[in-house]
Each structure stands twice: as structure tokens, then as C-alpha cells.
Amino acid sequence: MKTVMFGDQSVPAIGIGTWHMGDKSNRQGDEIAAIQAGIEAGAQVIDTAEMYGNGNSERLVGKAIKKFNRQDLFIIDKVLPENASLAQLPKHLEASLRRVDTDYFDLYLYHWRGSIPLSETVEALQAAQTTGKIKRWGVSNFDLMDMEELLAISGGNNVAANEDLYNLGSRGTEYDLQSWQVDHHIPFIAYTPVAQGDRFGQDLTTNSTILEIANRHDVTPYQILLAWSIRNGNVLAIPQSSNPQHATENINSGDIELSAKELSIIDDNFPAPTTHAPLDIL
Description:
The chain is of the alpha/beta class and 282 residues long. The chain has helices at residues 28-40, 56-64, 89-100, 118-131, 144-151, 177-183, 208-217, 221-229, 244-252, 260-269; strands spanning 3-6, 9-12, 16-17, 45-47, 74-79, 107-110, 137-140, 162-165, 188-191, 235-237. It is globular and about 55 Å long.
């Protein structure tokens, strides 16, 4: 299984996303089972946020991980921009920790940029790290100019990751951001890595090229899309699923090796970007 390095810690390159999970009580049993199936299949990373269902996703994660050794997991949480000040971030971090029922987060992200000065947010994140309540901090929905600004701030070079939208139908970050992060040893986290529809007007999972490659590997088109997203070794993908079998298949995608010819065929059908484009955000 492919892995991604966060400092000196290696984690499997396919994790578990939880956006849109935890809101409906009649689905929580399946959702908990799906998270647990993903962990049992080899996932370590679980990604959540205080924004997701106003804390419902965090509570769901807390229930799902009770049966596992916390030290075997890598939990990512996120703070909303309006809560990322020196005064508010500690309070919201504590609330998130309580909802997930854990003493620390392995990675805590600034969810997107807001009106609070970036320097103040970095100071608040650095302070949270010194308490031991977060092991690392990072950002989300940052483009190249944002990352360059971040690294120019005192303490900003301690950023441990950037999480952005990335899938075969949304390749814009490949033009300059992803290579810049590789050069600066900053892992890239891909949210919505299978896409919710795509900008070509078709479902990626029904594309004939993807279906043909999936049939060749005897896997699902979702698995090919995930294997493609982590092909370069610096990307952690966090697909979401409320179905235990699908969740297991997601994690198993980390074992799929796409050939150079297959990658070239995919590029022919879904060309890489040739110019910088505005960051895609959901």
C-alpha cells in the first residue's frame, strides 16, 4: 500500500473522509460500520471538521473509533476561519476534542482563509501545538500564493499539510501548487478525490477509459480514480463512504499500480493543466 510521510510519520495514502456524515440518525449505524471497515482494511487517517454537521461528524468519528487503539490512528480536524483567532481557537479546539473523545489531534487544519490575520492564526496554531493537544497543524483550501504568504510568516514554515479539492476532473493544483509542495516537503491532502460529477459533463465513474482500466485490474472505477489520485507519492486521498464494502474497496485502492501506459491514456482523456487556474473549492 502506498504511503505518505507527515514529518517522520508514515500513513497509508488512502484515508477516510467524513463530510456529510453524522447528520441522519437512521444512517449512523451504517456510517460507523463504514468507518470501522475502513480502519480494519488498513486505513489510519480519519478526516473531520467542526463545520461538518455542526460537530455531528466529529461525534460520529468518536463513536466509530472507540474499539480501536487511538495510537494506531491519525485523526485530522479543522477549525473554521472565524474561530481561528488567539482567543477563540483554543476554545474550539477543546470542543472538537470533546466531540471526538480524544486527547489530541494528529493534524489540525485552518479550514479556509477568513478575516483574521494569517499571522495570528499561525500563532494560535503554534500555541496549540506546544500544549500537545495537536501534534501538527496545517491549512486547507490554500493556493500557491497563499502557501507562499504562509511560509513568509514567522512560524509558517511549520505547516505540515495543505488540503485541497483534487480529482481527475479537477487537476488545476498540478500546474504549480503540488510540485511546490513536493519541493517544500509539504504533503498534499486531496478531498473529494472521486469527484461529485465533473466539469466534463459526465460521471467520472462511467467514463469508458476508466471503465476499461478498471475491468483490466478487476476493480471498480472508483478504485481506479483513487489509485490515480495518489500515484505520485505526495498525496493523501480522503474519500467518503457510508457503505462498509465500498469503504473497504476505497482503502484497498492503495494497492493498485497503474502502468505508465494507463496513466498516459488517462492523461489523453483528461489533460493535465497547462496554465494556472483559480483554486477549485467546494
